[in-house]
From TrEMBL, chains A, B:
<keyword id="KW-0808">Transferase</keyword>
<feature type="binding site">
    <location>
        <begin position="166"/>
        <end position="170"/>
    </location>
    <ligand>
        <name>ATP</name>
    </ligand>
</feature>
<feature type="domain" description="Phosphagen kinase C-terminal">
    <location>
        <begin position="14"/>
        <end position="244"/>
    </location>
</feature>
<comment type="function">
    <text>Catalyzes the specific phosphorylation of arginine residues in proteins.</text>
</comment>
<keyword id="KW-0067">ATP-binding</keyword>
<dbReference type="Pfam" id="PF00217">
    <property type="entry name" value="ATP-gua_Ptrans"/>
</dbReference>
<dbReference type="GO" id="GO:0005524">
    <property type="term" value="F:ATP binding"/>
</dbReference>
<keyword id="KW-0418">Kinase</keyword>
<dbReference type="InterPro" id="IPR023660">
    <property type="entry name" value="Arg_Kinase"/>
</dbReference>
<dbReference type="InterPro" id="IPR000749">
    <property type="entry name" value="ATP-guanido_PTrfase"/>
</dbReference>
<dbReference type="GO" id="GO:0046314">
    <property type="term" value="P:phosphocreatine biosynthetic process"/>
</dbReference>
<feature type="binding site">
    <location>
        <begin position="17"/>
        <end position="21"/>
    </location>
    <ligand>
        <name>ATP</name>
    </ligand>
</feature>
<dbReference type="InterPro" id="IPR022414">
    <property type="entry name" value="ATP-guanido_PTrfase_cat"/>
</dbReference>
<feature type="short sequence motif" description="RDXXRA motif of the pArg binding pocket involved in allosteric regulation">
    <location>
        <begin position="327"/>
        <end position="332"/>
    </location>
</feature>
<comment type="similarity">
    <text>Belongs to the ATP:guanido phosphotransferase family.</text>
</comment>
<dbReference type="InterPro" id="IPR022415">
    <property type="entry name" value="ATP-guanido_PTrfase_AS"/>
</dbReference>
<feature type="binding site">
    <location>
        <position position="115"/>
    </location>
    <ligand>
        <name>ATP</name>
    </ligand>
</feature>
């Protein structure tokens, strides 16, 4: 385990990660939903060739053929947001090229021929964009993109038209949630062209108080403007979250400490734990760490735990199929191990 | 802190403590509820003299004058069951003579002129009776007891007539409680002349799954028969409790371990905790220790915590008056300190 999540990025007390993804398509092939098998294979080969035969970053890359991978390995990548469920369930040949540090993931023949995404810890949309842009330029040397002077990059879904960019940040907002101010924040974001959704939860509920903000508009603004917009809104939310945390603590420090420590106590002692409960407790513990109350746990360690307690990743770690009951037991075991308890 | 509770007695996986108390009265004075002040003072002086001027045990004795003690010190003794609320609220001069190890407590001018009680860890009613008997004999050398050939020792309340003995054991019965078998046990005890009541709770509810069994009959049986009866019933309950614990564990070891460890996690991490919650959690932790699941905590340590987290004892330890909110904070602090955490 040596991914981006073991680093601690800027504003990591509120921002878990930043992601930029670009949607791109080959000019010469139909969009994936109507392409034939032969064309799909050609697209996979050409992207593979363009990436793997060059050194575009310090990290190594791995080619993942969706047709050849077992379901648990694929699900493990979905859980880490490195590939999408759409890619797994594709109609034609599909693949992903993923860097060893899991900062870069290029999906081939998802909704578009290409989905280039870069993930960084903390609030680093500029860095993520920079790396995406570099990979994009490299691919463009070898690929003729579907591009219109009027609309920009052509994408399968019109919501991605233009820049094809989606810049998002995953925020941990326990104080906004506890105080109920989250509703006002969601409304304000909507008016500013920023989408907010809960992550990790079914039906997009905000499990673990984690919310993803992202741009709704891809057309009519430059990539830099979009990155700046999301970053600025992100910074405003960070400030609001921080002052609410400080206020909650000020109001009743013992109550605050009691909450985060109890959650730590349960998290580090449970022998059976669901992922839902883990997310909730980790949210409290993270808050305690961010506020300097809990001192011997690193936020990056919590990021790592959040990724690896998910069903498929858990089964990969223990290297066997686990029933739901077994997963709850092994999840508790993994958490204690990662927290260095036993 | 160096009381009986830091020792670990026989059957300590189920029995917290054994207590024997004898009710005795002077022949020459009216019972406390109708005696005058002068007589009350004489009784106090005579008992004080009979005990303090002799060496009856290895341990030192302290004389506690109820009229001179402050309310918190008196309440602290009540919480430890060394004196009764009746003694504190007495109409006339009253006192207690308590051994340093808190195994012996002699109340003077409670309901009867004398209440001699001996407390031992685990199931040791025979030892407690032996020590009571020794103290009783010593006192009888100097005091003419109210005694009738027909009824035996005369006591204020007819329920104590005869031997004047009450033999009781404090049992920790989480498995009987969890499984609901406790109801059947309570019924059976009633039929066998054994009273059962919850301890530490208001209205005698069984806070912390702690129950006290004691003899209902004091007349028509010898002291030894009474001690044996309570010990035998105690042993039957111990066996039932043990096999239910084993069965519960066997049915779902992970669920069992999860329960005791979660309670340990909360107990050792909380920053605010009520005494009610402490009792509940300590009950689970004790069960975990007794079952060999939790290894680095001693049962005697839990006994000690149970005594010292009570309101007045807590205030004595921190040497100041604490508001209810402060108590919940200091109680959490004391528990962590006693568990060796931080």
């Amino acid at each position: 385990m040596e991914g981006w999540y073991i680093e601690k990025g800027p504003e990591s007390d509120v921002v878990m990660s930043s992601r930029v993804r670009l949607a791109r398509n080959f000019k010469e092939y139909p969009f994936p939903f109507k392409m034939n098998r032969e064309d799909a294979e050609k697209v996979v080969e050409r992207v593979k060739d363009a990436i793997l035969n060059r050194s575009i970053a310090t990290s190594d890359y791995e080619f993942k053929d969706m047709l050849k991978m077992n379901p648990i390995d694929k699900q493990a990548l979905v859980e880490k947001h490195l590939i999408s469920p759409n890619l797994v369930n594709g109609r034609v040949a599909s693949a992903a090229i993923i860097s060893k540090d899991e900062k870069v993931s290029i999906m081939i023949n998802e909704e578009d021929h290409l989905r280039i995404q870069c993930l960084f810890p903390g609030l680093q949309l500029d860095k993520a964009w920079e790396l995406c842009d570099k990979i994009d330029s490299l691919l463009e040397e070898n690929i003729d993109y579907a591009f219109s002077e009027k609309y920009g990059y052509l994408t399968c879904c019109p919501t991605n038209l233009g820049t094809g960019i989606r810049a998002s940040a995953m925020l941990h907002l326990p104080a906004l949630t506890m105080t109920g101010y989250i509703r006002g924040m969601l409304e304000a974001c909507g008016k500013l062209g920023i989408a907010v959704r809960g992550i990790y939860g079914e039906n997009s509920e905000a499990l673990g108080n984690l919310f993803q903000i992202s741009n709704q508009i891809t057309l009519g603004l430059s990539e830099e403007e979009i990155i700046n917009n999301v970053t600025n809104i992100g910074n405003q939310i960070i400030n609001q979250e921080r002052s609410l945390r400080a206020e909650l603590y000020r109001q009743n420090p013992y109550r605050f400490e009691d909450k985060v420590y109890r959650s730590l106590g349960i998290l580090s002692n449970a022998r059976i734990i669901s992922s839902e409960e883990s997310f909730k407790l980790i949210s409290d513990v993270r808050l305690g760490v961010d506020m300097g109350i809990i001192k011997n746990i690193d936020v990056a360690k919590l990021n790592e735990i959040l990724l690896y307690i998910q069903s498929a990743n858990l089964q990969k770690i223990f290297d066997r199929t686990l029933s739901p009951d077994e997963r709850d037991i092994k999840r508790a075991e993994l958490i204690r191990e990662k927290l260095g308890i036993n």
